[in-house]
Amino acid sequence: MITVHDLSQALTLLGLDADFSELDSTIQAHIKSGNDGLEFEDFVALHQSLGGQQQDQDQDQCADEISQEESDLSEAFKVFDEDGDGYISAHELQVVLRKLGLPEATEIDRIEQMIVSVDRNQDGRVDFFEFKDMMRSVLVPNS
């Protein structure tokens, strides 16, 4: 159980000087009759009344965006992974570059260098995680 005093002390330790009477008034509205403090469910209700529900919605939206990004990256990976083995080889990259009409498609040494530049485990091919890291570094440059 969390009392008004407990919450006041916790806020003070966090460097947040809350007015005790305002804090007491806000918390008392969420304490069930006969209790000396907030039970877990009461604390959750207090949190939601103070904007926690919006935060939960924001987190859900963020999770949806991450899921969509992951799905988009997976689809892009499949374009390059022509044989569906879960890896992008130099040959597969060359085929896609050729389809795109890029001049790099004729230079296998250059294509192999592209693979090496993102191949963290040095197995000579790019797996989905390496592809994802590479795409994120291109899409969201480090600042």
TrEMBL record:
Task: State any single GO MF term.
Answer: calcium ion binding
For this UniProt entry, what's an example GO CC term?
cytoplasm
- What are the residue boundaries of the EF-hand domain, all occurrences included? 68-103, 106-141
State the Pfam families in the record.
EF-hand_7 (PF13499)
What keywords does the record list, in alphabetical order? Answer: Calcium, Metal-binding, Repeat
Write out the ranges of the annotated region (Disordered). 51-70
Q: Please name the SUPFAM superfamilies in this protein's record.
A: EF-hand
Alphabetized PROSITE patterns for the sequence? EF_HAND_1, EF_HAND_2
Where are stretches of biased composition, namely Acidic residues? Answer: 57-70
Q: What does this protein do?
A: Potential calcium sensor.
- What protein does this entry describe? EF-hand domain-containing protein
